[in-house]
Amino acid sequence: MKDTKIAVQEIRAFNRFYTDIIGLLDAHLLNSAYSLSEVRTMYEIYTGKSVQASQIMTAMHIDKSYLSRILKKLTQEGLISKTPSEEDARASLISLTEEGLKVFKTLNKASDEQIDGLISSLSPRKLEQLVNHMQAIQEILQHK
Amino acid sequence: MKDTKIAVQEIRAFNRFYTDIIGLLDAHLLNSAYSLSEVRTMYEIYTGKSVQASQIMTAMHIDKSYLSRILKKLTQEGLISKTPSEEDARASLISLTEEGLKVFKTLNKASDEQIDGLISSLSPRKLEQLVNHMQAIQEILQHK
DNA sequence: ACTAAATAGTGGACTTTGTCCACTAAGTAT
DNA sequence: ATACTTAGTGGACAAAGTCCACTATTTAGT
To answer: Do B51 and B95 lie in a common domain?
Structure first.
């Protein structure tokens, strides 16, 4: 009982710590021409190859009208394209255009480099430990 | 070189994973009568006991005019109070009122309970491991 | 097949959140 | 005394996100 209470405090301390890290990393993207949500949307399309808006919605836990506007903007900028779904006439399948892929890869590379900077001073040993801790946390929290 | 590349991808996977967790936890606070920034502001005042606006600003990496408005709102709601600083006539020292402390503690307790829910299904052993991993990550990333 | 309910997506109207800038007042340095 | 910096406020605006109503399909129940 008491251990749990202490654990909760320590988890919350980590959450604050990691919120700051993520905020720092995100700040970088905010200086790009695209918003966080736009980049995340591109990411979802990129990894899904060809997805429905509804899939992005659930993946991002985002409002459908908000997403609709994001997709509209990305379409207008020529970064994504929609083709009507054959299974469902209400839906379309969204994919990155060549240009969209190019833009996404550039942003993605910048994010990689940022992480690179974060870990550049770590020894290979420490880096390996870091990754192991992260994977362990995911495993523990995923199976609940 | 190559290991680093893989590590970067794994760190980014963790970041996405943990961003979702934090988002989930924050969603809860968003249903409260206070915004995330307001709660975070109260937290800073609570832990600092009596702080200057500029301290909150740097702690939260927040725009000063934005903070000014948040403080104004919290003052109007009777949650915080300002007393002129004796060292610097431009600044004031901010602290939680009795009411503010009450509100903050309620929110804080709700956050605790939320974490509780997140870990309720974990064995004491797993919970201990989780906390250890979190602390290890902080140590590794802090000393860089 | 026929109606009712659910789902996919769009757009209007709005609120919340956050930014940029200019400004006052006080402190700091030369 | 003068210039520079710092603390905080407020106007004006932009960006982000929410809520609701609506159309067009698809799905389920009878």
So the answer is: yes
- Its ipTM equals 0.93
Report the domain count for chain A: 2
**pLDDT per residue over A57-107, tens digit each?**
999 999 999 999 999 999 999 999 999 999 999 999 999 999 999 999 999
List B residues 38-67 in contact with A (Cβ-Cβ < 8 A): 61
Q: Domain check: are B73 and B26 in the same one?
A: no
Tokens of A138: 């995911």
How far, in Å, are A21, A112, A125, A127, B96 from residue B6 at the CA level?
Answer: 20, 10, 14, 11, 47
The tokens 């207008």 sit on which residue? Answer: A76
Contact yes or no for A57/A44 (Cβ under 8 A): no
Chain A interface mutation, best of B3, B14, B108, highest count of A Cβ atoms under 10 Å: B14
**B123 and B53 belong to one structural domain:** yes
Closest Cβ–Cβ partner in B18, B131, B137 for A130 = B137
